[in-house]
C-alpha cells in the first residue's frame, strides 16, 4: 500500500451526489461493506477503518438525474488488501444476488458494479508489484476475463464488510478533451502518464503506481460538464505532501489557466472537464 502514502499524490476521498441518501447508505453498508463515520440530514461520510473518510455521499436539495452524456465519474476504485478479501467479497456478492462485471488487468484483478444512481464502482486487488511489466516508463495493462474460480480458492467465506486497511485505490474520470486533461494533471498537478489506450484513454500516477487516476473520452468527448444537482461526482481529494509541493502546484496550475482557491487544509482547483479537485494535507 506504499503507493497510497506520502510522498505520492493519491486519492484519499471521493464525494458523490445521490438521489436518495437512505437508499445509498443501505447499499454502501450492506452491499459494499462501508461503515458510517459521520451522518447529517443530507450527507454521510463512510469509512472502512472507523477513522479515515474514504467516500462521502451527498443528497442535493433538488436532485436531477443524469440524463445525458456528461463529464464526471467513470468509477471510483476501492483497493482491498489481499486476494482473499476479493474472494470473500465475490462470495458475498454471489450469496446476495449482486450483479457485477469482472476483469483481469494484469497489474490487478477487478470487479465492477453500479450503485443505485449508476455511479460506477470498482473493487480490486493489486497483483504484487514485482509481477507488473514495465517497458521504460509505460506499464503493461490489459482487459481480459477474470479467473474467478482461482480467486475463490483463496477465500475463507468470512465477509464482515471492508477490511480495515482498505484504501481508495484510484479514480477514473470521464473528460471532454484528453489532451487538455493530460496537460492539467501532468503539467498542473505533476502526475506522470504510465499507460495510453489509443487516443481515447490514458492512465497517470505518481511513484510508478499503475494508476492513481484514469482519464477517458469513451462516452464523453466534447460533452458538457455534470450539472450541479445531477447525481454523480461532486469532488475528489488528493493528498498533498508538503507546503513546497502545494506552492509549486498552485504556480503550475495558474500558468495553464486553471482556477486555484484556498480552502481549509489546502486548496481547490477544477480540471478542464469541470471535475473539482481538492488538494489537502
From TrEMBL:
PROSITE patterns: GLYOXALASE_I_1, VOC. It comes from the Bacteria. InterPro entries: Glyas_Bleomycin-R_OHBP_Dase (IPR029068), Glyas_Fos-R_dOase_dom (IPR004360), Glyoxalase_1_CS (IPR018146), VOC_core (IPR037523). Keywords: Metal-binding. SUPFAM superfamilies: Glyoxalase/Bleomycin resistance protein/Dihydroxybiphenyl dioxygenase. Residues 10-126, 167-281 form the VOC domain. The keyword Ribosomal protein does not apply. The keyword Cytoplasm does not apply. Transmembrane segments: none annotated. This is VOC family protein.
